[in-house]
DNA sequence: GATGAATGAGACTTCATTCAT
DNA sequence: AATGAATGAAGTCTCATTCAT
């Protein structure tokens, strides 16, 4: 019973944090507000999290985990490596659009906003790369994908996707450009980069 | 002498701001610190900038401008459209690595950290896209680049580059991967995506 | 012509000051606001007034002068000393009610809000006492008013009136008490205190 | 010990506030100074008081309460209604002279300096009037004092006293007039006004 | 576990005043 | 004569964090 309750507060805090993040943005994401949301003293958050960053890290971690799970699933449901890459890309996009704030938070790690992200957590974050990496390897083995260095390729794949979504979410996209078209075009470009290129392929779009 | 001094404080503030940003990161970027740096009252900053965001915007603007100038120059120095794209990509990378904090600040716009970025300033920011866009158009005209939509392609180009540098700067790159190799590989990928693909080309790597 | 303009600015400032005082109260009475009112730099006020207090003093002085003139006039229009006292009291009340902010400002001198009121200006302020004092003397000479010390009596008269208006203007009057009735009653009391008292009364203390 | 300390800061702030008020006057009464006095962060004051006004209100309230207590006591110690009125008047004077700053603060309510004085607190302030009012009623019942409207009379009594002290404390009293004599004279005048007047006098208006 | 009190940093605003031009 | 720039004080608010209970 007490265990339940203990877990509860931590979960409640995380939930409230997500809620605040969603409604107010990171800029206005404060421990006080979170505490207020669940009628708990701000100090109580420190019973479950070392500090604000730690709480944000947890949010990040969970978001990453959710994303990874989604990716894992769509990969398992697609047949060919190329289809898998496409599925990965589109799932990534879907996630970024649906959970914008959380997506953005994931990428806060980078900026000095969130320096202290603990090393151990990076491993979990890296799982996404592995998924991509495996698909690329699978494609390379099957002669469909031209990659001698699947790990590095996973990173470039990932990086390119992130760049695309970053532009989309930052609303820096020219208003004359249709968002979905942009995404489609970009993904096509990115994936094309990994296909074995032959004369036959260049025209098969 | 008088004119000089008048103009000075604003410039001094910007300089100090850049310095603080560089040494302390955005997380610890405070008006007080900036004011302290140049032995000026914090209030004085408000005589030249509406608020903290306004100052940051100015920093962004200047960084963008500098970047754009650099891009413009390298473009003008390269011959072929492909060479120009490459030059653009490498100059972008160079800038991002050299002025990391400023590069990061430019991309703060996106996150809600910096919502209030004024519309008018976006235009200047968009100049980079135009530069790329023009090169792509030029290449398309010359039959070297396969783009019917140079504007959109400019955005995908840009986005992908940003993604790459974002991964690099966030230090999320797997330690087993060499940074420069990663960058080279990624740029090659990205640019390849815009080349006219023929059987001859696929093997010329 | 230049003289005219010079005088103008000073007058304009005073006018604007009065306006601001009226509309915003002393609490929000700021040099900036005054300057803004007449589209002049705040610094310009210092060309005509030593500082904020000096400007306020000027306002006070003018208000006092206006009050004194009014008092002088009503005194000259009344016949008997008693009638004169009454006229003085009612004119004083009328002024306090009509120019509340200015009336209040006159009495700011006292509180440490306005310590530095210059000695020379006190003399002008004292003219009001003289007027009362003269009336009392006149009444004493005529056997109507019991005062051996008209100067002191003038001060008590004045003080009592001020107290009454102070209560009225501070809105501290019980809501069940009618304002005008209170004023009438108080004035009656005050003036009664100066009338010749018979032997019967004077000894019952 | 714990309770003591908890209650302490608020009290300490009030004490420091009173000290600052005393030594520097309302003009220089700043939260920062108060905080400095007791080596406490200025922010801490906001944990106990809504804002500066709230703190001042508290000072006022306590001063009023202290005054009322004094008045209550001297009234209970005097015999006849007339003696009580005199005791009240002299105690009032004593208080005003001894606690000048606090006395002045009490009367800050009026000026727009201190607009936001909360309604509930007025009730406490009104207790002084009740004390006077009761004495007047008692005197009226005993045929010594001529008052059909003791409540209003209490206000006029009060107002007159305040006026007198206001003149005294503002140092506007003519230097040729002895302060104590002035006070004595004024009080005599004021109290005389409430004594039963004979037919001869009452009709000579 | 949980909390209230306190802290110190910081943003932002308004202000009176000074100074150099 | 007039002004813009700068200053320092101050009020107000919000915040992350610490501490003692």
UniProtKB/TrEMBL annotation, chains A, B, C, D:
InterPro entries xref list: DNA-bd_HTH_TetR-type_CS, Homeodomain-like_sf, HTH-type_TetR-like_transc_reg, HTH_TetR, MT1864/Rv1816-like_C, Tet_transcr_reg_TetR-rel_C_sf
Molecular function GO terms recorded: DNA-binding transcription factor activity; transcription cis-regulatory region binding
Keyword Isomerase: no
Keywords attached to this entry: DNA-binding, Transcription, Transcription regulation
Endpoints of the signal sequence: none
Pfam families recorded: TetR_C_33 (PF13305), TetR_N (PF00440)
Xref: Gene3D superfamilies: Tetracycline Repressor, domain 2 (1.10.357.10)
Ranges for domain HTH tetR-type: 7-67
DNA-binding region residue numbers: 30-49
PANTHER family per UniProt: HTH-TYPE TRANSCRIPTIONAL REGULATOR RUTR (PTHR30055), TETR-FAMILY FAMILY TRANSCRIPTIONAL REGULATOR (PTHR30055:SF212)
Name by which UniProt lists this protein: TetR family transcriptional regulator
Source organism (scientific name): Fodinibius salipaludis
Lineage, top ranks: Bacteria, Pseudomonadati, Balneolota, Balneolia, Balneolales
